């Protein structure tokens, strides 16, 4: 009887620790040997930390810029100034500062992303 309990205990502990004798295999790892490691189909360790690429920079950056309330407010104000019935000043008085702020922010974001 004690032998039966010992076998059950070893089997349960072995399965919990991943040390199952039925499915035990030896694993060989060779560092800096890409030819050898390709046969195991390991996951790629490529890490991408950039937010933008050349194609998505302008649309994604403008989307992020206009999520800021001040930038969106000045965009709406500039659009409303195109209608002569509701404006008292020319449209470029709002457009030029808005474009300068957007350009400086875009240059800063591009520099941070590189």
TrEMBL record:
Signal peptide: none annotated. It comes from the Eukaryota. InterPro entries: ATPase_P-typ_TM_dom_sf, P-type_ATPase_N. GO terms for molecular function: ATPase-coupled intramembrane lipid transporter activity. GO terms for cellular component: plasma membrane; trans-Golgi network. Pfam families: PhoLip_ATPase_N. The chain crosses the membrane at residues 89-107. Residues 29-94 form the P-type ATPase N-terminal domain. Keywords: Membrane, Transmembrane, Transmembrane helix. GO terms for biological process: Golgi organization; phospholipid translocation. PANTHER family: PHOSPHOLIPID-TRANSPORTING ATPASE (PTHR24092:SF190), PROBABLE PHOSPHOLIPID-TRANSPORTING ATPASE (PTHR24092). This is P-type ATPase N-terminal domain-containing protein.
């Amino acid at each position: 009887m004690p032998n039966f309990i010992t076998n059950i205990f070893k089997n349960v502990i072995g399965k919990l620790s991943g040390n199952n004798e039925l499915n035990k295999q030896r694993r060989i790892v060779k560092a800096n040997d890409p030819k050898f490691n390709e046969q195991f189909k390991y996951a790629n360790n490529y890490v991408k930390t950039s937010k933008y690429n050349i194609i998505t920079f302008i649309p994604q950056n403008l989307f992020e810029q206009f999520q800021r309330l001040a930038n969106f407010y000045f965009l709406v104000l500039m659009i409303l100034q195109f209608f002569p019935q509701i404006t008292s000043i020319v449209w470029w008085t709002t457009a030029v500062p808005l474009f300068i702020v957007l350009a400086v922010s875009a240059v800063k974001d591009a520099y941070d992303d590189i």
